[in-house]
Write a structure and sequence with these properties.
about 280 residues, alpha+beta, six-stranded antiparallel beta sheet, 10 helices, 9 strands, about 40% helix, globular
Length: about 280
Amino acid sequence: MKVLPFKIPKPKNEALIYQEDRERIFYGQLHQHQEIQISLVVKGSGSFVVADTINEYQEGDILVIGEYVPHVFKSDSDKSDESIMCSLFFKKDSFGKHFFELTDMAETKEFFKGSEYGLKVLSKKQKITKQFNKLSHQNKIERVATLLKILNLISTAVSTPLSSFVYKKRYTDDEGKRMNDVFEYAMEKFYEPITLEEIADKAHMNKNSFCRYFKKRTNKTFFQFLIEIRIENACKLITNSPDLSIAMISEQCGFGTIANFNRKFKEIKDLTPTDYRRQR
């Protein structure tokens, strides 16, 4: 199954799709698809945007992305020569329109509700990983059984949302390309001063139109989103570069002053950068 921007061709007569991605970097184009996606990150790390929110991912993470939730991965290409992800794709009605409404499937209700905003699974990861490791050697019937086991584990596990707002209308390909260009530019140039004129030009819009367009689709301003990108990159540096001072990290992540960096960091992470480093 080849992933294309905002479209996933579905193999004929297949209710459940198992896919292994082995690339230097994961697919880096903003996209959405009708299928719900459950993924295990086997190798690699980086950042990814789910709807309105930027997150970090690393080896061992188990991620759930709901139907038509736009998302894009940006791998840390300097950390590994290969990124590996195993994924299951299926629709809620893949096994019949009312299959997951059966009393026997009642425990999956919270899974489907949570998938609408994306999920990162925090507990039972070892058990879920064990099930994922079986998939490459199974036939299609066995994979359906394994999916149900994984759903049961995720439904009763501790998890955290990946986003807080999802634009309910499906993006067209043109909209997908426009938002992808904006996200990609922000994620590549976060450490530089980015003006409203500059980012609106990337979207081929005037400033006022771009502000309305971005806010409607993410429920936040572009500069709120940019600050979140800067903070997530600061978290990586705090964790991975203990020799760098907080002041240096602030500068490398595009903040004009350390006071502003400390204030924004605490607003988003509920910790000061120094306390965050101490906890790591």
